[in-house]
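Backbone-to-sequence.
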């Protein structure tokens, strides 16, 4: 196998130069981190599951007109994506109080929020990804007011769609983090598109009946059953059925 040039290695993924101009190969690792890289571990099979889950959700979002960087899955751990200029802002959408918002505002975890709340965080591991306002984003030139409007509108649309999709398979979407990139099309027109991933690494997912956690909080909080939780999400989406790994077109409803 020919050597590929590594462009970037993050906590959960490695990016390699793509086989075609304007593309990148995104490799999903089994490595797990929490608390800004202070806690580290390995979740066996996580990379393969996240690759399939993100592929599935990105394709579903493309189907409702959300532009994404996803091109196609290459194998069990890699996917081909469009090369983008990542906007250094993490966009978090919250539907139910959990994690940092519960700590910051003293809201009991599990409390439904009055409405979906969008928050912005400066993407910088050394600083602990601090929360920022629209004023900070525009003042420091990370994104324009129009970029922010586009990202917010897209984030709320993504949220509405994913809430319904996941509830149909017995999962509550508590909150999630997404990232965007600037992509230039064949006419050299810049577009803001969804990038990175949507997986149990970047979402809080709770069983709709029991509130059992089906995401990386099981790793963060030493709850055990991490691999099983990721597998359960994949199973419910029809990506990893009970009978074994195979391609399944749609989600499996949970009564």
């Amino acid at each position: 196998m020919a050597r590929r040039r590594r462009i970037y290695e993050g906590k959960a993924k490695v990016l390699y130069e793509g086989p075609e101009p304007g593309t990148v190969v995104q490799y999903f690792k089994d490595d797990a981190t929490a608390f800004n890289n202070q806690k580290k571990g390995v979740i066996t099979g996580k990379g393969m599951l996240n690759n399939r889950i993100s592929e599935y959700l990105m394709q579903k979002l493309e189907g409702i007109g959300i532009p994404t960087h996803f091109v196609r899955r290459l194998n069990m751990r890699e996917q081909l994506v469009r090369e983008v200029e990542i906007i250094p802002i993490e966009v978090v959408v919250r539907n139910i109080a959990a994690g940092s918002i519960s700590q910051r505002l003293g809201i009991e975890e599990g409390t439904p929020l009055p409405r979906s709340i969008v928050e912005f965080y400066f993407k910088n591991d050394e600083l602990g990804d601090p929360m920022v306002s629209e004023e900070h984003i525009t003042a420091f030139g990370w994104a324009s007011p129009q970029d922010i409007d586009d990202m917010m509108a897209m984030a709320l649309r993504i949220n509405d769609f994913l809430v319904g999709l996941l509830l149909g398979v017995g999962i509550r979407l508590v909150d999630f983090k997404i990232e965007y990139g600037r992509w230039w099309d064949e006419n050299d027109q810049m577009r803001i598109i969804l990038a990175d991933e949507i997986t149990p690494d970047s979402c809080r997912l709770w069983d709709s009946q029991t509130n059992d956690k089906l995401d990386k909080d099981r790793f963060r909080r030493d709850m055990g059953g991490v691999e099983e939780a990721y597998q359960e999400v994949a199973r419910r989406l029809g990506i990893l059925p009970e009978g074994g790994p195979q391609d399944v077109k749609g989600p499996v409803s949970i009564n």
